[in-house]
Amino acid sequence: MFKLVPRQYSRLSSLSSAQPFYVAARTLKSSSKTTCVGPLVVPEQDPNGHQFEQDDKQFTELYRDFLKPASFYNACGRYGIDYFTGVPDSLLKDFCAYVTENTPIERHTIAANEGSAVALASGYHLATGKTPMVYLQNSGLGNIVNPLLSLAAPEVYSIPMCILIGWRGEPGKKDEPQHIVQGDATPALLQSLGIPFQVLPDYLDGAEKVLATAHAYMEAKQAPYAILVRRRTFDTYKIPAEKNMFEHTRESAIQMVIDSLDNSDCVVGTTGMLSRELFEYRVKKNHGHARDFLTVGSMGHASSIAFGIANAKPDRPVSRKCATILLQIPLTPQVKRKLAGAIICVVELLYSIDVFVFS
Q1: What is a single Pfam family found in this protein's UniProt entry (predicted)?
Q2: Do 220 and 120 share a structural domain?
């Protein structure tokens, strides 16, 4: 059986604050010193049969803190942050859900892309003098470089904003290849942009200190400040489920379109669940994947990839086979929000762009 010893009780006085909160520690039979043997697991006794001392035994449970979205939201309010905009991220989903459920609609805007979020936040500050929060996944950092440097920078219009960034691909954490590349580069990217940052702790006192530092900097420099959010920082928060009033889901819409295609048609799928569901449906139908390009990263650019293919292959027109099926789906504003980009887009239909089909 393996147990854990909290760092502050492992009596490893030489450990720095940069090391993990929980460390492995044991007293070796051949030595009276406590030795760090790894980052996480600690045997209840060492291989030689030596038992832990009594004062170590009472601290062998793993206590994992999670930051409650409500607590962090209220802390943001205490530092004057009352407007939120950005692109939802899986690491921030619980906080974003709380913001969506508890913020007036005029003070929360889900943006089309991260650059637009920075622009929205800038407009809010120009109108109110208050500091907004922009939330995004680190994969969207590239989209905010231009507005940060040419709009919000102190040398230009000097606009303070708190940038909350989900740190996908954090070094040492298992993730998808595109996230690992972005995760490794994230701290250096922020440094090269001249944006100071801290990692958000998973407990309220620590989070308050980070917000206090961010607030002091933004007030003094009138410039952006970033907060990186690791995986599983926030406690769970879910928006109460609404009754589904619609006939179709994103997945069923994808299946309807795929079922209407010819064997020669190729498909460009967008980032996220749509491409995953497209892949799974191809497996289920034994179609193979040779005709699909799944845009696993580069969020928001599937339409441009598809246009690049179409532009280089003028002899392969965009398929119109899906139009009849799509028109059977009720495309009200509520549906578009509900499906969040799930309806398949053909060029003639100016709805959300997720899959482009070429014959």
Answers
A1: TPP_enzyme_N
A2: yes
Q: Are residues 157 and 305 in the same domain?
A: no
Q: β-pairing, 2-3 with 162-166?
A: unpaired
Which distant-in-sequence residues (6+ apart) come within 8 Å of 45 by Cβ? 51, 52
Percentage above 90 pLDDT, the chain: 41
Clarify whether residues 42 and 73 are in a common domain.
no
Boundaries of domain holding 336: 250-358
> For 87, which DSSP code?
-
Apex CA 167: angle with CA 352 and CA 356, to 5°? 20
Q: What is the DSSP string of 296-322?
A: -SSTT-HHHHHHHHHHH-TTSPBP-TT
Picking from 192, 356, 174, the residue whose alpha carbon sits closest to that of residue 274 is: 356
Cα separations in angstroms, 193 against 212, 217, 223, 226? 22, 16, 12, 11
Nearest-angstrom CA–CA distance, 176 and 249: 26
Per cent of the chain over pLDDT 70 is 70
HSE of 129 in the Cβ direction (CA atoms, 13 Å)? 0
Is 341 or 64 the better-scoring residue by pLDDT? 64
Query: What is the structure's pLDDT at 62?
Result: 57
Please give the torsion angle defined by the CA atoms of residues 100, 102, 103 and 108, in that order, rounded to the nearest 10 degrees. -10
The tokens describing 100, both together, are: 């969506």
Question: Are the C-beta atoms of residues 26 and 43 closer than 8 Å to each other?
Answer: yes
**Of 229, 264, 283, which marks where a domain is finished?**
229
DSSP characters for 12-71? -TT--TTS-SEEEEEE-TT-SSEEEEESS-EESB-TT-PBPPHHHHTT-S-----B-HHH
Buried residues in 269-291 as b, exposed as e (16+ CB within 10 A): bbbbebbebbeeebeeeeeeeeb
Over residues 252-263, the mean pLDDT reads 83
